[in-house]
Specification:
By secondary structure, the protein is an alpha+beta fold. It has two domains: 155 residues, D-amino Acid Aminotransferase, Chain A, domain 1, CATH 3.30.470.10; 182 residues, D-amino Acid Aminotransferase, Chain A, domain 2 (Alpha-Beta Barrel). The protein contains eight helices and 18 strands. Strands 9, 10, 11, 12, 13, 14, 15, 16 and 17 form a nine-stranded mixed beta sheet that branches. A seven-stranded antiparallel beta sheet has the order 3-2-7-6-4-5-18. A hairpin with a 3-residue loop joins strand 12 and strand 13. Helix 2 crosses helix 3 and helix 6 packs across helix 8. The longest helix has 17 residues. The protein is globular. The two termini are 35 Å apart.
Length: 362
C-alpha cells in the first residue's frame, strides 16, 4: 500500500472533547486507553487527510495555505456523524467550528511555531491528520461515551510516487454501497485496502496499489464497474484524448483533489468525461491499444501515473499488462496538471473557478 516518505511529525497534537467542547494541547505521543471501543472494535474511528503549505508572506509572517479545505472539513463532519448515535450528532462541530479549532487554536499554539518555521524554510508539503477516538476506558459494542477529536500535523517528501505498479483485485470489495461507508474516510474501509495490496503482490511482487471493482463480486467480471485504487481515486486516459473520471457514489470517496485536477485538465483543453467505466470496456480498450495511462489521485500524492497496470480475469490470472504511452500528449498533461495543482498552494499558479484558496497568518 502507498506510504509516506521523509515524514516528520509535529511535537504536539491536539484533543477536542465533543461533549464538553474542551480543547487541550498534548504531546505528540499522548495515547488513548488500551482498552477502548475505538481500539477493540474500531468504533468511532473516522479521519481526514488535509494538504497544506506553509511559507513566509511578503511581510515576513508565517502563513498556511489550504485549497478547498472546507470540503475536507465537511467530509470529516459526515464521517463523525456516521460513527455516533443519532442523539449524539448534535455534538459534531460544524465546518466553521472545525476551522477555528484547527487553525486558531492548534496551528497558532506557540509550541507549534518551530515546526511551521522549519516547514516554511524547506518549502515542504504539509499534512493535517484529524481523527476521532473514544477517550473512555471501556469495553462493549456501543457508541462512544467520550467521543473526541485529535489532530496532528506533519511534513513529508512524497507519497506513493512514480513509477508504481497497480494490479486489479476483483475478488475483494473495499466497501459495500448499501452501508454508505465507501464515501466516507472511515477506519473500517482501510483494512480491505491493505488486504487488497497484499493480494495484488501475489500477482506482481512489485505492486504498490490495488484497483477495486464494484461491490458485486458474483457478477460477470466484464460488467462490473471500476471504483477506486486502494487509497485514492483514479483517472483513465485514452488515445482519443479523453480522460475518464469515475462518478461519486456510496462506493467512491468524494475527492477534493480530483475535483481540482479535473478543473485544471479542462482548462488545459482536455476532454474529461465523468461516467462509469466497466472493467470490460477497460479490457477492450487495452487490447485495442486505446489505453494511454491510469493515474492515482489523492490528497497526499496529488496525482501519480501508473507505470504498469496488471489486468486479471475472474480467477486472478493475468490477461494483460499495460504500460503507459509516454509519447501521447495526455501522459504529459497529467503531470502538468499535478504541478499546476501544487503551484496553486505555493502561489505560483492562479486558482481556477471552483478552486478556493484559504490563507491564515499564524
Amino acid at each position: 500500500m502507498a506510504k509516506f516518505e521523509g515524514i516528520r511529525w509535529s511535537s504536539k497534537q491536539m484533543r477536542y472533547a465533543l461533549p464538553e467542547k474542551e480543547y487541550e494541547l498534548l504531546e505528540a505521543d499522548a495515547q488513548v486507553y488500551a482498552v477502548s471501543r475505538s481500539v477493540q472494535y474500531a468504533l468511532f474511528l473516522a479521519f481526514e487527510g488535509i494538504r497544506f503549505f506553509c511559507r513566509k508572506n511578503s511581510e515576513g509572517r508565517l502563513e498556511v495555505i489550504f485549497l478547498n479545505w472546507l470540503k475536507n472539513l465537511e467530509r470529516f463532519e459526515r464521517g463523525m456523524a456516521f460513527n455516533i448515535g443519532r442523539e449524539q450528532r448534535k455534538l459534531v462541530p460544524t465546518a466553521d467550528e472545525l476551522e477555528n479549532i484547527f487553525i486558531h487554536r492548534y496551528f497558532k499554539e506557540p509550541e507549534m511555531r518551530e515546526f511551521f518555521e522549519e516547514m516554511a524554510a524547506l518549502g515542504a508539503q504539509g499534512y493535517l491528520r484529524p481523527f476521532t477516538v473514544d477517550e473512555e476506558q471501556s469495553i462493549g459494542v456501543t457508541f462512544p461515551n467520550k467521543p473526541a477529536i485529535r489532530a496532528l500535523a506533519c511534513r513529508y517528501d512524497r507519497y506513493l510516487g512514480e513509477p508504481f505498479c497497480g494490479v486489479v483485485v476483483p475478488h475483494l470489495v473495499r466497501a459495500v454501497g448499501v452501508n454508505k461507508t465507501g464515501c466516507l474516510k472511515l477506519g473500517v474501509n482501510y483494512l480491505m485496502s491493505v488486504k487488497a495490496v497484499e493480494e495484488a503482490r501475489k500477482v506482481n511482487p512489485d505492486a504498490a496499489s490495488a484497483l477495486f471493482l464494484d461491490d458485486n463480486p458474483q457478477g460477470k467480471i466484464e460488467d462490473r464497474h471500476i471504483t477506486e485504487w486502494d487509497s485514492s481515486c483514479c483517472l483513465f486516459a485514452f488515445r482519443d484524448g479523453t480522460v475518464v473520471k469515475i462518478p461519486e457514489s456510496n462506493l467512491i470517496l468524494p475527492s477534493v483533489t480530483i475535483q481540482g485536477i479535473v478543473a485544471i485538465l479542462k482548462d488545459m483543453g482536455v476532454k474529461v468525461e465523468e461516467r462509469h467505466l466497466t472493467y470490460g470496456e477497460l479490457l477492450a480498450k487495452a487490447k485495442a491499444n486505446e489505453f494511454v495511462a491510469a493515474a492515482s489521485v489523492g490528497t497526499a500524492g496529488i496525482l501519480n501515473r501508473c507505470s504498469k497496470l496488471v489486468l486479471v480475469d475472474g480467477d486472478g490470472k493475468v490477461v494483460q499488462t499495460k504500460v503507459p504511452d509516454e509519447k501521447h500528449p495526455l501522459f504529459a498533461k497529467l503531470a502538468e496538471a499535478r504541478e499546476y495543482y501544487w503551484n496553486v498552494y505555493r502561489g505560483k499558479a492562479k486558482p481556477l473557478p471552483g478552486m478556493t484558496v484559504y490563507k491564515y497568518v499564524l
